[in-house]
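Encode chain A's predicted structure.
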Amino acid sequence: MGPHRKKVEEVLELLATLTQPYDPDGLDLYFSTESTKLRPNTPEKFLKYLRERPARGRPDFRQRFAKIIEDYQSRFGKSNSWARLRHPNSTPSKGPRPLSLYVLTNGVWDPKCTLITEVKSLVALLQEHKYPNKYVGIQFIRFGNDREGKKRLKTLDALNAKLNLPLDVIDTTSADGNVWKMLLGAVNDWYDNDGDPDDDDDDSEDD
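Encoded structure for chain A:
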């Protein structure tokens, strides 16, 4: 991600600014290269934390992603299967607030990293607790045109169709694309279905 640092800063600052009025608790900031969870309360602090961390090689992205998903899943209350059997139209059990997770990446991770297990587990839990589609949205924002990275992210975007999952929790888009798709693509069908202009261009490649 080193060659894309300036663009990463632009996108991060933009997302922090646009989401600030809608989340009273502020956004959490994670880095794939460390276990710390940060909570900057201004766009300027987001940039400060980013600039303090040099770009490194291929991260163990699956481990970091799994931990974030596990932390969110731990906030779900235990489902009452007997009550739902007696009242099949009951409302969702008490649990966490909706989640929008923005992943800024070039898609170049460990070759064995697929995230299938984590996504299937999350979708199963959401369905068990009767949460609607788009309650959780994971938006991958791609930097650069690395062939391997583009292929991996396109595979993730099509994961719900490939695995016949009942909920669609993933969207991917280019960092050079529509900012509203970056912000809402994973939680809004209209933006989710708005494809990237370079989706069909798989021949270009950079770092």
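Confidence is low (pLDDT under 50) at residues 79-87, 203-207.
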